[in-house]
């Protein structure tokens, strides 16, 4: 079965998505997600100019060989642009293999290890009443696990606090915003460290001890600040504290780990297993936050989870709305098949996105399931996609009170 076409589709229904569509001489097609929030067009060029021409004529059934060829033959390894492009090819080839075998991809990965994937949603609010309302809304939608992000007194706007949508659509580009220049937010770590435990105290008081609660620190703390935060959140029994320090410094987690039993999750901006090597081997984290889309696809995601299983480290794959329904489906198939699944992030795409990407996965009573259609179970309506051209949009960044650019 030979690859005869590799087309890149860019569309912006509720936000920008980059999708690779591979077609074989037998008429089967496969989809892969190559969306890199705020840097989408760099991956489009990488795919169109450097990858698609190499795919024509290759055997579509040779997934591992194609992955190794793209990773090793380019000389330049790793990095989000390269790995998003390789991810799209890998996912598309798994999609085709599933369709050829007439099986959902999770069956090809060993079959289901569970009935469904516990998912968490994003509750947020600048005040406690707004936060409580948001938590209740998520519970009404079925969520049994909830990420809690909050405003901090004295700070105007903060990442992760859902903006009021002007279009009525949820998560319209958020947290990226349309515009030619990133929006500027402010930040003060000392205020945040003082305020956050009071919020979790109030949430536990209101919602009781059972509800699994998560929090994303978004790389903003030094190791000693992260250690202090983990310790101060211990009474509130978090499911995890995510990205407590800038993720590229793996050694920082040793210090955090020595001081707190709050479970740690990291890795949404990691691109390869090597970014996790020390963290997993030294058992410095509890959850792998990689996304199929930025980690080279289904094949390496499966490998890193098999490595993590030896150290009782579980999955918590990155699932914001800038992972397309194709990328989300890809990691759902992995999550269903592996033994060491932990939790799946699920923010829910908007109605326009769902019309462009027809999906077969379900979200019932807090649990996701990828469905039983052959392949990944997602199809792209190319005509519908064509109605929404690319729009410039960037993630915000932040500065401290003295004007210094801070981690985010
Ligand atoms: O592209 C960046 C977003 O995906 C990121 O800000 C979302 O941190 C995030 C999360 O945990 O979902
Ligand atoms: Mg995050």
Describe the 3D structure:
This protein is of the alpha/beta class. It folds into 2 domains: 102 residues, 2-Layer Sandwich (Enolase-like, domain 1); 265 residues, Alpha-Beta Barrel (TIM Barrel). It has 13 helices and 20 strands. Helix 5 links the parallel strand 4 and strand 5. It binds 2-keto-3-deoxygluconate and magnesium ion (MG). 2-keto-3-deoxygluconate (KDG) binds next to loops.
Summarize the structure.
The protein is an alpha/beta fold.
Structural descriptors:
three-stranded antiparallel sheet, Enolase-like, domain 1, binds magnesium ion, 408 residues, binds 2-keto-3-deoxygluconate, ten-stranded mixed sheet, TIM Barrel, 13 helices, alpha/beta
Q: How would the blueprint of this fold be written?
A:
Blueprint: E1 3-11, E2 17-24, E3 29-33, H1 40-55, H2 63-73, H3 80-101, H4 105-108, E4 117-125, H5 128-140, E5 145-150, E6 177-178, E7 184-186, H6 189-207, E8 213-216, H7 223-233, E9 240-242, H8 252-259, E10 264-266, H9 277-281, E11 287-288, H10 298-309, E12 314-315, H11 325-337, E13 344-345, H12 351-356, E14 357-359, E15 362-364, E16 367-369, E17 378-380, H13 382-386, E18 393-394, E19 397-399, E20 405-406
Parallel strand pairs: 4-5, 4-13, 5-8, 7-19, 8-9, 9-10, 10-11, 11-12
Antiparallel strand pairs: 1-2, 2-3, 4-16, 6-18, 14-17, 15-16, 19-20
Helix pairs in contact: 1-3, 2-3, 6-7, 7-8
């Amino acid at each position: 079965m030979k690859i005869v076409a590799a087309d890149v589709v860019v569309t912006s229904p509720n936000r920008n998505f980059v999708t690779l569509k591979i077609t074989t001489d037998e008429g089967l097609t496969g989809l892969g997600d190559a969306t890199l929030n705020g840097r989408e067009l760099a991956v489009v060029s990488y795919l169109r100019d450097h990858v698609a021409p190499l795919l024509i004529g290759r055997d579509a059934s040779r997934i591992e060989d194609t992955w190794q060829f793209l990773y090793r033959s380019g000389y330049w390894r790793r990095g989000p642009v390269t790995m998003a492009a390789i991810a799209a090819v890998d996912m598309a080839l798994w999609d085709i293999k599933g369709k050829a075998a007439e099986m959902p991809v999770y069956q090809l990965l060993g079959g289901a290890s569970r009935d469904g994937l516990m998912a968490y949603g994003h509750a947020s609010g600048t005040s406690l009443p707004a936060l409580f309302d948001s938590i209740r809304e998520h519970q009404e939608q079925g969520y049994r696990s909830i990420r809690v992000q909050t405003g901090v007194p004295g700070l105007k706007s903060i990442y992760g606090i859902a903006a009021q949508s002007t279009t009525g659509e949820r998560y319209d580009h958020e947290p990226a915003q349309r515009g030619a220049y990133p929006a500027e937010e402010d930040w003060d770590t000392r205020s945040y460290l003082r305020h956050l435990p009071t919020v979790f105290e109030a949430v536990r008081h209101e919602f009781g001890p059972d509800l699994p609660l998560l929090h994303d620190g978004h790389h903003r703390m030094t190791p000693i600040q992260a250690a202090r935060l983990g310790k101060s959140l211990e009474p509130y029994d978090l499911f995890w504290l995510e990205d407590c320090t800038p993720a590229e410094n793996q050694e920082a987690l040793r210090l955090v780990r020595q001081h707190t039993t709050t479970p740690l999750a990291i890795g949404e901006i990691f691109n390869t297993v090597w970014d996790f090597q020390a963290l997993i081997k030294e058992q410095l984290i509890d959850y792998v936050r990689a996304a199929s889309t930025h980690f080279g696809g289904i094949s390496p995601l499966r490998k890193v989870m098999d490595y993590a299983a030896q150290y009782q480290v579980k999955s918590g794959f990155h699932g914001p709305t800038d992972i397309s329904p194709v990328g989300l489906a890809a990691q759902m198939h992995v999550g269903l098949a592996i033994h060491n699944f932990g939790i799946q992030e699920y923010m829910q795409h908007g109605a326009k996105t769902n019309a462009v990407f027809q999906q077969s996965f379900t979200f019932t009573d807090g649990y996701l399931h990828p469905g039983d259609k052959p392949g990944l179970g997602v199809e792209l309506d190319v005509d519908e996609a064509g109605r929404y051209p690319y729009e410039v949009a960037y993630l915000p960044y932040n500065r401290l009170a003295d004007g210094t650019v801070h981690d985010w």
